[in-house]
Amino acid sequence: MERIIKLTDGTEIKVGLVGNPVFKTIMLPVAKESVYGQEAENLKLWGVDPELGKHFIEGLLDEFQVLYFDYEGHRFQNPNPENLTPDNIVNDLILIADEMNVDKFSYYGYSWLALVGLQLAIRTNRLESLIMGGFPPLDGPYKEMMVVTNKTYQQALDNQNSPVCDEQVNLESPEEIDWDNIKVKIDTNQTKQFVTMYKNLMDFDDRKIQHQLSIPKLTFAGEKDTIVYGENFGSVTVDIVGILQKNKEELEHSGWDVEIIKGNEMDHTKAMQPITVLPLIKAWLIEKLKYPIRKK
User: InterPro entries recorded for this chain (predicted)?
Assistant: First the structure.
């Protein structure tokens, strides 16, 4: 079943619900639409699954009912520059669950959609479990990301009237791109909405809310998930895996399961692909939600 749902800002998003309704439901706001042809080939060069959403859904629906949509894609197509606040994002997610007649559900988000899951968990009692990938639930790098998003927004403003140097972006050799000097034209509203989001998280203390999270919860990151940004992006380091490793014992004491995905290439992008994530989160969900693992 797929429906078009009007969100709190009046924009419309496509939402799907598949799987046996007697199963537990998992919300997947990361379910990107499949792409094909040259666009798919370009994504593969960056280690991105061009059918990411499809593979997540198909990988889970034999054991779960899956509530899926592409919230990030929606926000890039329909930016909300002044009002993409944690409260409004959570209201969107709750509205989607209500419109699809889903009461209780688990949540999986990656990167900024992982921090959204944490905001959701402290604002509702409808979550049955929480999975945060690629963003730590304790000592999260909110201030560093504020710097990065601010710098990105300023570059977007500065580059609006500058020609984009296509020769700088060699899609066939991503590893050769000079990220410190590249100029990419981005919609200022797309970038400003994330400035708004992080600005509204500057006073958020993720240590003070841990006691509110009495549900099963998993956090994970790739072994190489450390992003060092150059001067153009504020000269900050967003050390996702370092923060997780540093706080692993404390997180486990607070009831979190913590997984570091091993691999020399397991960076922020590789650690979000279905081939990597599905075996981890599916087994964890089955265990935590007390599902018997069916023999095939």
Answer: AB_hydrolase_fold
d(CA 7, CA 12): 6
Q: Nearest-CA neighbor of 295 among 26, 216, 286?
A: 286
Give the CATH number of the domain where residue 106 resides.
Answer: 3.40.50.1820
Asked if the structure places residue 283 within a domain, the reply is yes
Q: If we measure between CA atoms, which residue out of 195, 56, 29 comes closest to residue 117?
A: 29
What does the pLDDT average to over 126-149?
97
Q: Is there a domain that residue 249 lies in?
A: yes
HSE, CB side, 13 Å, CA atoms: give it for residue 234. 16
Q: How many domains does the chain have?
A: 1
Q: What is the pLDDT of residue 53?
A: 84
Does the pLDDT of residue 164 top 60, yes or no? no
Separation of alpha carbons 125 and 195, rounded Å: 28
DSSP 163: P
Residue 59 within a domain: yes
Q: Specify burial of residue 3 (Cβ count, 10 A radius: 0-12, 13-18, 19+).
A: middle
In a domain, residue 158? The reply is no
For residue 225, give Cα distances in angstroms to 75, 118, 174, 176, 255. Answer: 24, 20, 17, 19, 23
Whole-angstrom distance, CA of residue 262 vs CA of residue 90: 32
Query: With b meaning 16 or more CB within 10 Å and e meaning fewer, what string describes 258-270?
Result: bbbbeeeebbbbb
Tokens of 95: 């509205």
Q: What is the Cα–Cα distance from 129 to 149, expressed in whole angstroms?
A: 29
Unique residue bearing structure tokens 């994330």? 194
The rounded percent of the chain whose pLDDT value lies above 70 is 87
**Whole domain around residue 134: which residue ranges?**
2-140+205-229+237-288
